Amino acid sequence: IMLNELDKELESRGLQFVRYADDALIFVKSEKSANRVMESVVKFIEKKLGLIVNAEKSKIARPKDLKFLGFGYYYDSKDKKYQVRPHPMSVQKFKRKLRQLTKRNWSIPLDYRIMKLKQVIFGWVNYFRTAKMKTAMREIDMKLRSRIRVIIWKQWKVPRKQIRSLIQLGIPEEEAKGLTYCRKGYRFIGLSKVVHRAISNKRLEQRGIPSALERYLKVHTVI
């Protein structure tokens, strides 16, 4: 309730701001204005509202240096204004979660893994749906599919089944044998053209593997 009084104060001053709980951003046009507003707003919060401002977290910064509720900001030279995007730390956290869900030594049914991936991807993308992040989602999809291909390859277990499975998916026998006996690591397998042809993006989609980019294009909201 007290911070509602802060909202009214900032509105009465004609300031552009956004607040969530006790975190707030106030936007001004110059560093000089920022210093003046910082001083007066801190005084209002502490003297009028009787609250303590966290000096360590309170700072004057340019939009590109800010992180607010998981969002970051960048200057769009084409539109000549700042746009929102997921902060790099938020993207890294998202990637770490996807890596955890696609560990090849996590022995669970593929259907359960797909369900967990959908929950995480849909939830994350829905939260950041106002941000510009098409390129980031495309890159995340590529890495996710590569890891899923490795999981499927490992589930085939023995060379004979790997060869038979590749042939069933349209790979000539010699190519299937060449890949199976190449003695390369899982990273090579996940990125190989043979596996890409056998376990194509379309086949992964039909199997139910979620796409961060597809979800983003579906729910993206321009504000």
Number of strands: 4
- Indicate the overall shape: elongated
- Rg is 25 Å
Mean pLDDT: 93
User: Order of strands across the widest beta sheet?
Assistant: 1-2
Give the distance, in angstroms, between the N- and C-terminal Cα atoms: 28 Å
Uncertain ranges? none
Number of helices: 11
How many strands, what sense, and barrel or not for the largest sheet? 2 strands, antiparallel
Indicate the percent of residues in helices: 55-70%
Describe this structure in words.
The protein has a two-stranded antiparallel ribbon with strand order 1-2. The chain has helices spanning 2-12, 31-48, 88-101, 110-127, 134-156, 159-168, 173-180, 186-191, 193-198, 201-207, 212-219, and strands at residues 16-20, 23-27, 71-76, 81-86. It has 11 helices and 4 strands. Helix content is 58%, strand content 10%. The chain is mainly α. A hairpin with a 4-residue loop joins β3 and β4 (81-86).
Summarize the structure.
This protein has helices at 2-12, 31-48, 88-101, 110-127, 134-156, 159-168, 173-180, 186-191, 193-198, 201-207, 212-219; strands at residues 16-20, 23-27, 71-76, 81-86.
